[in-house]
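Lab notebook, entry 242. We have the chain sequence and a SMILES string for S-adenosylmethionine, and the next step in the workflow is to get a structural model of the bound complex before anyone spends time on docking refinements. Request logged below.

Task: model protein plus S-adenosylmethionine, output structure tokens.
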Amino acid sequence: MVAFHLITLFPEMFSALSSGITGRALTQKLISLDFYNPRDFTKNKQKRVDDAPYGGGPGMVMQYQPLHDAISQAKAAATQNPLVIYLSPQGKPLTQEIIRTLSQQKSFVLIAGRYEGIDERVIQKTVEAEYSIGDYVLSGGELPAMVFIDAITRLLPGVLGDETSSAHDSFENGLLEYPQYTRPETIDGMRVPAVLQSGDHAAIQRYRLQQSLGRTWQKRPDLIKKRVLSEEEQLLLKMYIE
Ligand SMILES: C[S@@+](CC[C@H](N)C(=O)[O-])C[C@H]1O[C@@H](n2cnc3c(N)ncnc32)[C@H](O)[C@@H]1O
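Result returned:
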């Protein structure tokens, strides 16, 4: 069981995780979600969690005390030593490699910011890692936290059946996945590549590797540059390009 402890002003947003693969993982108790709303930790009558930024400027900033107390409670409730992560556009970009490494972890505290962000001292005091889901700014950390939970969950043993194994997914071997086809054989004048119906498993594997290499070269040249290609891969890619 992997426990996700969520620090969020909008716990209701996480109901989206009750669908599909993450929903099944929740029912099977392969993952758990627990919520700590900073608003429940305020010490003022209005339950305010934000205030104006020092130095001026637009927007509001989430205050230290409610966040700190919510995080402390989450850490105290965690049975395994949790990794405290702040989802932030300023964090390290999340990759499948990072997700695979973190999928060994048994417990997380995920902090979803709102407004202009959170008081920097929360980060100084309690945050162990900051991750971004891309170079764009969202209005809150809830969607990034859900992205994180989904990506981790599908790598946990027992979550995906063999028929939906993650081993061939894009990025797993530094390449994008090969193209997929399903019935019917011909549609709108387009035929499934013959090799996929040949029954020749070695030929199918070679075709798929070549497609993976080719489409990564076309769509994500940055990934191809990073990857060391074997002699066979170099040859397959050369044939694809020609
Ligand atoms: C409007 S954003 C704050 C952005 C902040 N003013 C900045 O420019 O760095 C509010 C919250 O959304 C979340 N967030 C926004 N974009 C994100 C991204 N690309 N990845 C992860 N979290 C993000 C963070 O939790 C952040 O505290």
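Notes for the group: The pocket of S-adenosylmethionine is lined by residues 87-90, 112-114, 116-118, 132-134, 136-141, 144 (CB under 6 Å). Worth checking against the assay data. The helical segments are 20-27, 64-77, 96-102, 120-126, 142-153, 201-219, 221-226, 231-241.
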